[in-house]
Amino acid sequence: MKPETLAIHGTTAGNGFGATVTPIYQTVSYAFDTAAELADVFAGKTPGYIYTRIANPTSLALEKRLADLENSIGCIATSSGMAAISSTVLSLTRSGDKILAATGIFGGTVSLFENILPRFSIETVFANAANTETFISNIDDRTKLIFLETIPNPSLEIPDIKAIARAAKKFNIPLIVDNTSATPILVKPGDLGADIVIHSTSKYINGHGTAIGGAIIDTGNYNWRNGVFTDIKNTSKKAGPLAFLSHLRNLVYRDLGGCPAPMNSFIMLQGLETLPIRMKTHCANALKLANYLNDHTKVSWVNYPGLPASDSNQRVADQLNSMAGGLLTFGLGSKELSEKFIDSVKLAKNAANLGDAKTLVLHPASTIFHEFDEQKRIEMSVTDDMIRVSVGIEHFEDIKNDFQQAID
Amino acid sequence: MKLTINGEEKQFENQMTVSQLLTVEQVKMPDMVSVEYNGQILKRPDFDTTNLKDDDKIEFLYFMGGGR
Ligand SMILES: Cc1ncc(COP(=O)(O)O)c(C=O)c1O
Question: Which of A158, A188, A297, B14 is spaced 20 to 30 A from A21 at the CA atom?
């Protein structure tokens, strides 16, 4: 099945009434007739749900559908994108280990890696992933995982996932790719060799800015039986290729408590159904807006991977199905002018989110990056005049007119 | 055709796909099961197109919590 069809007709949690939509199983626990039955479920001898922090039918339907769309072997849905990232990283690292991460990725991820993980003596090396050679030269025998974003936000410098996946394989460590901003409609990182895919489903998958959620997807590329993670290797004796997800489900995810609310999983399933058509419109509008801004005399600079002048343009063609996503950044030369622009837009909302149906604008330096000093912000490619736009799916003429009146 | 299902050898008369085996074996919660086919997890869209052959090894795995 093609993604447009899978997104609509994929797994639904069974229901006895012929309901055409996956029901919301709003329950904490699941009752069994006999003590032996529940004991069998706990022992993994028979399938069944135990407790919604571990698994839930509505969330499982979402998990199956996401795994299918990413052409992967399995998925665990989480309460947020950050819960997906923290659970994944905490399952794969321990004191003394190192992470190699791309610079210019989401600020929340950077904060987790820089402010929380060091407390457990887990160190992160940040390097520019757009340059494969220098990036992978940072791998050493303590590195346990590599972390990238398909379209890093806000740098929008696209890494060569295939080449970095090859290096990860050589060192037998997993490559984790946050595919939030591209979604499986633009790229399935697993098809390029990535081992684990992360989503903040709060963004394009939700699509309407109505719920927070995340997902951890095992693409099936990493061989946990021969991996460098002893505890997961042991799990693989029972769970086979599902060892990583099983290790999460029965330990890290279960004990950290990052499960989604069933209601939110339902909302994400609804969002998924229209993801393929929405992504096409987000990308088409973003390309038009980038071209418009590029031609505007008052605009100092525009960064959109879909523009031929972008260093990432070739990678859009090679990796992203020739669609460059719905995010762009531009500058008006000074912080004051950029703030004035944000104050003047009428249609676009000034909000710290992306992937909404509505066009959203944000001044990253004073918002999601305010905790970082200026030097650090520059390293993260966040300039003081940067405006980030999450281009929505309104009619392009209306978006353009709004930007025009706000710039002029 | 001889298949090993969850470690147990079984004989089958007819050709089958993985989807058909799920029905024949009355696998519980077929929407939720993961199928390990000769050591690899089958992607769900391949259930309908994977034809079973003699000596194939199949494991039905659930990862809804519990012992696995
Ligand atoms: C690329 C990326 N990853 C992860 C996250 C975190 O997701 P959440 O807000 O769902 O925790 C975000 C949120 O902005 C993001 O943009």
Answer: A188
Structural domain harbouring B32: 2-61
Closest residue by Cα to residue A236 from B15, B47, B32, B36: B36
Average predicted confidence (pLDDT) for chain A:
95
> Domain for residue B66, yes or no?
no
CB A86 less than 6 A from any atom of ligand 1: no
What's the complex ipTM? 0.77
Q: Are A158 and A111 in contact (CB under 8 A)?
A: no
Place of tokens 């290729």: A241
Note whether A70 and A96 are within 8 A (CB).
Answer: no
**Which residues are paired to A389 by β-bridges?**
A328, A361
Number of structural domains found in chain B: 1
Q: Given an 8 Å threshold on Cβ–Cβ distance, is B29 in contact with A241?
A: no
Across the interface, whether the CB atoms of B43 and A74 are under 8 A apart is answered no
Span A128-144, pLDDT tens digits:
999 999 999 999 999 99
Residue A252 pLDDT exceeds 70 = yes
Query: Three-state SS for A284?
Result: helix
- A65 to chain B: closest CA residue: B44
pTM of the model: 0.94
Among A203, A256, A368, the mutation site with the greatest number of ligand 1 atoms within 8 A of its Cβ is A203
Measure A232 CA to ligand 1 centroid, in angstroms.
Answer: 26
Task: Give the distance from CA A211 to its chain's centroid.
Answer: 15
Q: Give chain A's domains with CATH numbers.
A: 3-263 (3.40.640.10), 276-407 (3.90.1150.10)
Residue A195: pLDDT over 80: yes
